[in-house]
């Protein structure tokens, strides 16, 4: 059985490395080509790449597990994510694509901040680059931990060996192929995740006798599984703050560098509506599949003589029980695809900040494109090695780390990006104050206990962090009253170009 699974995974690894080789041979050897694909990506690749790098392993493990335990009340997070992603495509993507090109061809988020606010002091660039480097190194480490655990739980391999396998494949195609390789592998991985999330709950449903029989089985176990406001096994209803906290995950989209950088790489703003339709269709169907896997999986476990020690492994268990080993290997590869797609995106964004925002901007402004591409590849390797070291011996859940990093990026960058794109009177000092305020409030909310409990337990930290950021941006920008004709001219040029390309 394991030999068939290994064959499927082996084929998957070969495809990923082959794409990396293809991208290496077809990527322009300049920094824009390596870090942004030359701004030539098709809308379908942009959409699935953004989706795959966004969802990670939690889509196939964390969300089904939450649905398995809590029922339909766990879907509030999915509702929030759909609304947030749709707004991201509609309001951020087109304007960011044009603005980053007009603003001296910015190729990273810190680069965009520096150009947007004419920050000759480099404070904005340095602060945002540090936030990206620190949080994404930890974020990358959490993905490697997930890969190690997958190999350990599914194949009985040593945890460290699983860690090395996951890191080795991701680093290889990212190191050589750059943004083009990451985006193309994300496209394939997104297709793989989509098929898996549709296939598994469909097969479970037929095993239980069809959709009607499945729903009846779930209702017989506990009607609360179909309640949006009552978690299974709890006599208390979800509070308003509880629902807001779950839906507030959607706010994080506006500030996630590894997602919004995809919008900067699309070949034309005119392609954005197609990307939005493809991306949102993929996301909604994949989320429905993930939720259904947890809900139908609970009914399947209850109807058969089996136990499930960890609800987050329901997708893995169903893959192994219901499918031929070759298909099971394909489904396990989908989990690995979710993990690897996010790791590769985070590696590239982190290395781009190290190279473009630290090395080139502060240390060597006269560096050639060949030098920058070489340093970028070395940065990918260096960040990966550090992430592996941090992942060594890690045996605890990574959900909290991912949740905290999502809140940190969303609260630190989201309001600055939104206001920077739409409010011409926003100033450099306002951006700095907003970014610092959002970051500090979020960290306090996450880690400083009040009356023996952190505030994040009552309200997700991204909400107060987001509000603090916006408040600081408005107040400081109003008090600053800086009149920069260059900033205003760039803003007007962006608005004009958007109207022309609409």
TrEMBL record:
Residues annotated as transmembrane: 6-24, 67-91, 123-141, 161-182, 194-218, 238-261, 282-302, 314-339, 372-393, 405-423, 430-448, 454-477
InterPro entries listed in its UniProt record: Na/Glc_symporter_sf (IPR038377), Na/Pro_symporter (IPR011851), Na/solute_symporter (IPR001734), Na/solute_symporter_CS (IPR018212), Sodium:Solute_Symporter (IPR050277)
Compartments where found: Cell inner membrane; Cell membrane
Catalytic activity: L-proline(in) + Na(+)(in) = L-proline(out) + Na(+)(out)
One Gene Ontology term from the biological process aspect of the record: proline transport
Principal cellular location given in the protein's record: membrane
One Pfam family in the UniProt entry: SSF
Molecular function terms from GO: L-proline transmembrane transporter activity; proline:sodium symporter activity; sodium ion binding
Recorded topology in the membrane: Multi-pass membrane protein
Family, as annotated: Belongs to the sodium:solute symporter (SSF) (TC 2.A.21) family.
Record's function text: Catalyzes the sodium-dependent uptake of extracellular L-proline.
UniProt-recorded name of the protein: Sodium/proline symporter
């Amino acid at each position: 059985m394991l030999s068939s699974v290994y064959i499927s995974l082996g084929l998957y690894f070969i495809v990923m490395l082959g794409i990396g080789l293809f991208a290496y041979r077809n990527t322009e050897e300049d920094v824009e080509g390596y870090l942004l694909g030359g701004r030539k990506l098709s809308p379908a690749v942009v959409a699935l790449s953004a989706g795959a790098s966004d969802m990670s392993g939690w889509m196939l493990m964390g969300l089904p597990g939450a649905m398995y335990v809590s029922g339909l009340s766990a879907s509030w997070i999915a509702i929030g994510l759909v609304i947030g992603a749709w707004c991201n495509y509609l309001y951020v993507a087109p304007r960011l694509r044009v603005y980053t090109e007009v603003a001296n061809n910015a190729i990273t988020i810190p680069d965009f901040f520096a150009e947007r606010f004419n920050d000759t002091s480099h404070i904005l660039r340095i602060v945002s680059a540090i936030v990206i480097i620190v949080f994404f190194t930890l974020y990358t480490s959490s993905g490697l931990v997930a890969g190690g655990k997958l190999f350990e739980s599914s194949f009985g391999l040593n945890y460290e060996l699983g860690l090395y396998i996951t890191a080795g494949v991701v680093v290889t195609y990212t190191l050589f192929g750059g943004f083009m390789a990451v985006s193309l592998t994300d496209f394939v991985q997104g297709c793989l995740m989509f098929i898996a999330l549709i296939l598994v709950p469909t097969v479970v449903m037929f095993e239980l006798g069809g959709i009607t029989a499945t729903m009846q089985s779930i209702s017989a176990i506990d009607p609360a599984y179909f309640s949006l406001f009552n978690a299974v096994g709890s006599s208390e209803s979800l509070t308003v703050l509880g629902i807001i906290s779950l839906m507030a995950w959607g706010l994080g989209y506006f500030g996630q560098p590894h997602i919004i950088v995809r919008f900067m790489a699309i070949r034309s703003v005119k392609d954005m509506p197609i990307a939005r339709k493809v991306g949102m269709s993929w996301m909604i169907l994949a989320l429905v599949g993930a939720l259904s896997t947890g809900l139908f999986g609970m009914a399947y476990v209850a109807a058969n003589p089996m136990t499930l020690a960890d609800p987050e492994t329901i997708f893995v268990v169903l893959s192994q029980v219901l499918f031929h080993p070759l298909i099971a290997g394909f489904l396990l590869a989908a989990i690995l695809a979710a993990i690897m797609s996010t790791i590769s995106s985070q590696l590239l964004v982190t290395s781009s900040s190290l190279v473009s925002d630290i090395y080139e901007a502060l240390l060597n402004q006269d560096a050639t494109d060949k030098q920058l591409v070489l340093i970028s590849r070395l940065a990918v390797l260096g960040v990966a090695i550090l992430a592996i070291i941090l992942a060594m011996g890690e045996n605890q859940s990574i959900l909290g780390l991912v949740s905290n990093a999502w809140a940190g990026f969303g609260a630190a960058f989201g309001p600055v990006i939104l206001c920077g794109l739409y409010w011409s009177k926003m100033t450099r000092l306002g951006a700095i104050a907003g970014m610092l305020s959002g970051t500090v409030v979020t960290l306090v909310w996450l880690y400083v206990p009040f009356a023996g409990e952190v505030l994040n337990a009552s309200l997700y930290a991204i909400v107060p962090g987001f509000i603090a950021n916006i408040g600081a941006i408005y107040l400081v920008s109003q008090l600053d009253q800086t009149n920069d004709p260059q900033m205003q001219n760039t803003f007007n040029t962006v608005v004009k170009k958007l109207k022309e390309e609409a």
